[in-house]
């Protein structure tokens, strides 16, 4: 399940300048909005890794959740994200993207604190509801906010650098979680929950909002306006083009990803003996190492791709690039499912995740460039909702298939579900106006 995006005012610190006939390959010196965005992405990534690196272990060993309860916790989280994506996206479009982000960070912190303070089933379920609501306030709103602040032509390099910052601080957060977890498995959750509250407070001071024009106060409570905004976003999704294709891709990714995300650990534990190095042979230590190596590999891949293939990453219509990255992910899933040696299996896992990491900012920028500003947050929430629907619909059947047959077989099926996404992306053509040079 992750993480999401007029005039460029001169009072942001350093106005963005760019040749209108050339897509910028390098980000300019960060504006005030860009710096705030980097603070958000970096802080969020560190705190997320701190909270969730050992969260599953905490739920099993401290809270004593059964396998069924673990599944229920995950289902409640996905259902909450699904139900609240559109309402919170509408709030971001009507009132304030900045306010939506601040509310989201604060509510996420509360949810994590609830989980850490009360280690039992029902409080953890309640924490997933709170966390899910907070996440949907952020999903779509932060990308829409920064796009409005810096301009559509400057946002792609910003997304790419934020993705690299995300990966670097995920490594830091993972290490901090391991260190704090030696004291208590509750401590990482408590530190992360408090950290999110501090992050929300800090962003309230440094985060500008000058590019967004909210709906006048007298119109904010008009249900007709809400219905119009929603129908406009749905209409954009129904028209042939980038938005509809991305909804299809999001659905396919959701259908495929849930079983991999839930079962890759079980595949490694059940199929391979973990090595013993310098006396370390327990699963918790090794899976922390696997997570760290995966983050480093993804960071290196993102840096290398940005350096060696900058023009392709920043292309206005990168359909072939994204289709190729989807095929790399499909190949990674197949290798992970079928190879019978531990380290090649892990390499397949890391390659798959690296391809997804490189693709994410390119895909986000491409979608943002093809969505009208006044419905941007709502439309982005629609794509997140399509992914959530896919996860809810695809996870249980493929999980049942894994139980009745084997985990590798279910993973092969998930790769087959994802593969058509490459075809959808490869067939996507630029809007007519851009093909004609408008």
UniProtKB/TrEMBL annotation:
InterPro entries linked to this entry: MFS (IPR011701), MFS_DHA3_Transporter (IPR053160), MFS_dom (IPR020846), MFS_trans_sf (IPR036259)
Record-level Gene Ontology MF annotations: transmembrane transporter activity
Gene3D superfamilies per UniProt: MFS general substrate transporter like domains
UniProt keyword list: Membrane, Transmembrane, Transmembrane helix
UniProt protein name: DHA3 family tetracycline resistance protein-like MFS transporter
PROSITE patterns: MFS
Keyword Cell cycle set for record: no
